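=== Structure Prediction Worksheet ===
Name of assembly: unnamed complex
Input type: mixed (protein and possibly other molecules)
Chain count: two
Listed entries:
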Amino acid sequence: MLFDYMAIAVFVFFSTAIAVTAILLGGLFGPRRKSEVKSEPYESGMIPIGPGTRRMPVRFYLVAVLFILFDIEVVFFLPWAVSFRKLGLFGLIEMFIFIGILLVGYFYAWKKGALEWE
Amino acid sequence: MTAEQIIQQILFFISAALTLGSAVMVVATRKLIQAALWLIVSLFGVAVLYALLDASFLVVVQVVVYIGAIAILFIFAVMLTQRDQRDKGPQLNKSWVLAALVGLATFGGLTFLVSSWTGFGAAAAPIPAGTVDMVADLGTALVSVDQYVLPFEVASVLLLAALIGAIYVAYNRK
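=== Predicted Assembly ===
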């Protein structure tokens, strides 16, 4: 049973190993000559104004919340998709109702302009 | 013990140590964004624990919802706060020794009580291979009339309410 997850384990191992190696090699061989100018945040060649960390616009929050809700929708799709072939027409209709109700919310978001980025 | 059980034990200890260690880092680190990233590591350790328990659907939910959504929301929340608002006081107050002792005593007492249970040291019985596909079972249950079809459809209404509520609260009305 554990071997079902082997592909994921190998993937996680190599992605971590490559990232760690890259950072380690850079730290080992890269020269470190710090200076005042180097530690300034880069701002397209202009002299930086204000603090380095700024608050993100609250608009991003709405995107995050919308993402989470559609993410949870995906969780419901997954088991349904696994047994989709056995479920027949009834299962398909049920899923259409499920999506239909959620599409109302999607159109509401659209109509309200929540998907626009002004 | 068979070889597979030994591998499972080793994986359990690694992932448990990873989960607990990164959970400690979540509360120990001072930088909020790093705390959020440690939280992702901790949640991933829990996903590995689910995988060891054969709960494949929960693994997917853990990764998709907790790491994919909740952790992202945390990072958004961190981004929305101002850096000057962070706590500058000491991380330990003066009664931390007492708190640690009480915590240890509670942990020891609970471990002592649970250790008298027969299942404490026993390995979990393996699920017979090829009998059930639990994810497929769940999918069937979700759209069967005699099972969870009504809760399933009600869940979509709940999601709809959350969607509309989120837009209503967050959207800048003129």
